[in-house]
Amino acid sequence: MTTNNIHEEMGDGVRDPETRQLESDLANLYAVPVPYLRFSANARPAPRQREGSLRRHWRPFAGAAAAVIIAAALLIVPQVLGGGGATQVSAQTILDRANAAATRRANSLPSYHLVATFGRGDEVKAGTPDASEETWYGDATHWRTEQPGGFVQVRSENDVWVAFTGESGTRAVHGTGEALENWSMNRVGAGAAQSVGDLLAQYGEGCQVATQGADDELLGRAVYVIHVEMKPEACSRPEESEKVRMNSNDLPVSTFWFDKETYLTLRSEQTTAAGGRNYVYEVTRFDIGVAIDPATFTYAPPAGVNVAEANDWSDAKSHLAGITPGNTTDAGATNAPGQQKK
Question: 30 or 171: whose pLDDT is higher?
Answer without folding.
Answer: 171
